[in-house]
Design a protein that fits this description.
By secondary structure, this protein is α+β, with helices and mostly antiparallel strands. It has one domain: Hypothetical upf0131 protein ytfp (Roll). The chain contains three helices and eight strands; from the N terminus they run E-H-E-E-E-E-H-E-E-E-H.
Length: about 140
């Protein structure tokens, strides 16, 4: 299965300020806010989405339509350290999952966390706030 869509929930969102986010934003069209049924954890300055059996848990993020999926995903796989030549074990794996946007479902790529979440804090809201945005909000207060 293949998809021209990518669901992002962390350091690739539209409010992120890093080279890989800029790369995605220049090679894709933001379709809007979306969500995926799963759980979100904080690894350090970035989040981890994992499959959850609790249908009440959702991960909030954005759905992007990729101009050139093969090229863009190849570059993002390097960033997410899940490319074929990335060291094992891979922290993330790219998977196609059902994403809800505006009340409808689209099948989209998502990077799912592959390591243990036992020692990670769960983000109960399902919403990850990029550090740069938290700083901007704090400075504006």
């Amino acid at each position: 299965m293949n998809s021209q869509y990518l669901f992002v929930y962390g350091t690739l969102q539209s409010d992120a300020i890093n080279e890989n986010a800029k790369l995605l934003h220049s090679q894709a069209k933001l379709l809007g806010k979306a969500r995926w049924q799963g759980s979100l954890y904080l690894v350090s300055h970035y989040p981890a989405a994992v499959v959850s059996g609790d249908i009440q848990q959702w991960v909030a993020g954005e759905l992007w339509q990729l101009n050139d999926p093969q090229k863009t995903l190849g570059l993002l796989d390097i960033y997410e350290e899940c490319a074929d030549n990335s060291p094992l074990p891979h922290e993330y794996e790219r998977s196609i999952e059902p994403i809800e946007i505006n009340g409808e479902m689209k099948m989209a790529w998502i990077y799912l966390y592959q390591l243990s979440t036992a020692k990670l804090a769960r983000i109960d809201s399902g919403i990850f706030v990029n550090q740069n945005q938290a700083l901007v909000r704090r400075n504006q207060a």
